[in-house]
């Protein structure tokens, strides 16, 4: 339970159940890879961070949204695996930022997500990544992140 201990040290409380709002599963495993569906910044089923990043919402607002997306990703993975220590490494993130026209700092917003994964998993948390701007996200949320994790053999 090393990862759980690290989450406690960081003051992170994972959601107990992934919120699914359509016809998909939060986590799909093939071989040793987990494909984690896009998670948005929701808490208790309610969008917490909404609006476009740029003039309407600040970069730090977007970064807070990205952190909550990662917390929700980890909650979905824990629900699926039962134990986050089964995660071998974070392979890839794809982050979408609800952006105003002209905003070009999506990579800075998604850095907060990357940093949190590194803080939790160490070098195993370093990953490939894509950070994209979009003109709209579901429920007008500010950020959505999907991920690919590798799990230990036999999981």
From TrEMBL:
<protein>
    <submittedName>
        <fullName>RidA family protein</fullName>
    </submittedName>
</protein>
<dbReference type="Pfam" id="PF14588">
    <property type="entry name" value="YjgF_endoribonc"/>
</dbReference>
<dbReference type="InterPro" id="IPR035959">
    <property type="entry name" value="RutC-like_sf"/>
</dbReference>
<dbReference type="InterPro" id="IPR013813">
    <property type="entry name" value="Endoribo_LPSP/chorism_mut-like"/>
</dbReference>
<feature type="domain" description="Endoribonuclease L-PSP/chorismate mutase-like">
    <location>
        <begin position="6"/>
        <end position="140"/>
    </location>
</feature>
């Amino acid at each position: 339970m090393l990862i759980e201990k690290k989450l406690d040290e960081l003051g992170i409380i994972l959601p107990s159940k992934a919120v699914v709002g359509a016809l998909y599963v939060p986590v799909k495993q093939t071989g040793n890879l987990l494909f984690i569906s896009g998670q948005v910044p929701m808490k208790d089923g309610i969008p917490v961070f909404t609006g476009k990043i740029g003039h309407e919402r600040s970069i730090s607002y977007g970064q807070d949204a990205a952190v909550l997306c990662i917390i929700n990703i980890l909650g979905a993975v824990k629900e699926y695996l039962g134990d986050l220590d089964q995660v071998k490494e974070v392979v890839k993130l794809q982050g979408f930022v609800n952006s105003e026209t002209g905003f070009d700092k999506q990579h800075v917003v998604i850095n907060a997500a990357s940093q949190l994964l590194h803080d939790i998993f160490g070098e195993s948390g370093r990953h490939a990544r894509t950070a994209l701007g979009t003109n709209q996200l579901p429920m007008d949320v500010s950020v959505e992140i999907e991920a690919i994790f590798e799990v230990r053999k036999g999981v």
